[in-house]
């Protein structure tokens, strides 16, 4: 197997954290695959027509994508610990919530990184942040008990999304008003798998 990756992608980070937590990291070499919607990577497009990373190249079948599909696949081959059946739908919902935060933050980043200044749409940016703010509120208010205990993909996804907010939206100070979530993240971010994958 090989993983098409980008060093700053939070979607890739989710997969890498899982690889480290599951002990598979030495079995999956990384291959550069970063690009943007305006300048996609040709090699990534060859294996994923959407041009997005991560994409997992397998020896016994076609490449698979996106991060949620890859994480389920890797969990299956590593023994199935990160999507526990007793809490499966809660874990999947947390994973989707983390992914949604990443989606909105990435759209914000694309607006200021790729769009010419005179065409930037401030209301669009704030609309994306409002999604993130609502998700943070719900995590802090309703989901803290599900962020405890053995590591799941829900926890990994949320942690990677918060790390991405630190990278791209530090000025927004997501911790303000989310004390429980911030405290949880401070501890989770010290895991070896998280420390080893901090975006450069």
TrEMBL record:
GO (cellular component) term, any one: cytoplasm
Name of a matching Pfam family: GST_C_2
Membrane-spanning segments: none
Residue ranges annotated for the GST N-terminal domain, each copy included: 1-82
InterPro entries hit by this protein: Glutathione-S-Trfase_C_sf, Glutathione_S-Trfase_N, GST_Omega/HSP26, Thioredoxin-like_sf
Gene3D superfamilies: 1.20.1050.10, Glutaredoxin
Signal peptide as annotated in the record: none
SUPFAM superfamilies documented for this protein: GST C-terminal domain-like (SSF47616), Thioredoxin-like (SSF52833)
Domain of life (superkingdom): Bacteria
Name of this protein: Putative GST-like protein YibF
Organism: Boseongicola aestuarii
Gene: yibF
């Amino acid at each position: 197997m090989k993983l098409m990756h980008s060093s700053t992608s939070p979607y890739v980070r989710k997969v890498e954290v899982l690889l480290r937590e599951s002990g598979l990291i030495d079995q999956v070499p990384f291959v550069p695959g970063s690009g943007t919607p305006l300048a996609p990577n040709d090699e990534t497009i060859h294996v994923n027509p959407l041009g997005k990373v991560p994409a997992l190249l397998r020896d016994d079948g076609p490449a698979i994508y996106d991060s949620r599909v890859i994480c389920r696949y890797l969990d299956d081959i590593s023994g199935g610990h990160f999507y526990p059946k007793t809490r499966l739908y809660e874990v999947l919902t947390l994973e989707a919530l983390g992914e949604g935060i990443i989606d909105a933050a990435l759209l914000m980043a694309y607006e200021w990184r790729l769009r010419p200044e005179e065409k930037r749409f401030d209301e669009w940016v704030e609309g994306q942040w409002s999604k993130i703010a609502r998700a943070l509120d719900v995590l802090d208010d309703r989901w803290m008990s599900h962020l405890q205990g053995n590591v799941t993909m829900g926890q990994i996804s949320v942690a990677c999304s918060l790390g991405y907010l630190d990278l791209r939206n530090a000025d927004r100070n997501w911790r303000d008003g989310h004390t429980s979530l911030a405290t949880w993240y401070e501890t989770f971010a010290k895991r070896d798998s998280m420390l080893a994958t901090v975006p450069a």
